[in-house]
Design the sequence.
């Protein structure tokens, strides 16, 4: 009974905060946009509907971009309650701006240009771009999840601790994912790539990347669960 009473007191203290309605709506919208993003990624990347139906691929890409923009709008509104959310918006802008340019790599004319150009020079540019994207993505995740934790500081320290723990895991996973992808591109620049491929090392590296991608999916699902619980706490 004391535990139930403690939870009720925490919820009451959260709901009495001046920014409670804003935080409730913000967490709720982030949860909904997160669900929409997962559905779009499943349709486009897992089921490859965009490859099977080119017109649908364009629609899904446009929807993904729109969801990303809406998420930034929600984060900006949340910054009125927790200023750190504004930093998450700034660091999310580079990956969002780079997304259309990355999508152009699938265009036939661009692929022909890559084939006819110096592959090593192109790989160097891709490595730099990839490094910047993952650096900004890591910083964006850190500030966004830390801001979520700060929304509960002083009222629900247990929920704040969960957000900070998730922040640590997500930053580590995103950082490892970027590092392994960069290493994979670096092997393409070196003659050592033949050694790795011949000895099966490249396969091991790809398995590591797959494992990290799965881990990233898991922490994203946990983030959705926390967003749902956070919205309920501020309801």
Sequence:
């Amino acid at each position: 009974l004391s535990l139930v009473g403690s939870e009720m007191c925490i919820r009451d203290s959260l709901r009495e905060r001046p920014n409670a309605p804003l935080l409730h709506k913000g967490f709720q919208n982030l949860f909904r946009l997160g669900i929409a993003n997962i559905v779009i990624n499943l349709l486009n990347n897992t089921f490859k509907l965009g490859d099977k139906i080119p017109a649908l691929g364009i629609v899904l890409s446009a929807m993904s971009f729109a969801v990303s923009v809406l998420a930034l709008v929600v984060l900006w509104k949340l910054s009125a309650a927790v200023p750190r959310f504004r930093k998450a918006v700034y660091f999310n802008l580079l990956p969002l701006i780079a997304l259309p340019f990355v999508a152009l790599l699938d265009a036939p004319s661009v692929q022909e240009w890559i084939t006819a150009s110096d592959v090593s020079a192109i790989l160097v540019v891709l490595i730099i771009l990839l490094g910047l994207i993952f650096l900004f993505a890591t910083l964006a995740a850190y500030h966004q999840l830390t801001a979520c934790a700060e929304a509960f500081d002083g009222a629900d320290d247990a929920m704040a601790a969960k957000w900070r723990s998730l922040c640590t895991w997500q930053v580590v996973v995103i950082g490892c994912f970027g590092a392994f992808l960069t290493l994979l591109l670096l092997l393409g620049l070196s003659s050592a790539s033949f050694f790795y491929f011949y000895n099966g090392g490249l396969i091991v590296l790809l398995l590591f990347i797959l494992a990290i991608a799965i881990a990233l999916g898991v922490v994203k699902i946990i983030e959705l669960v926390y967003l749902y619980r956070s919205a309920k706490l501020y309801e």
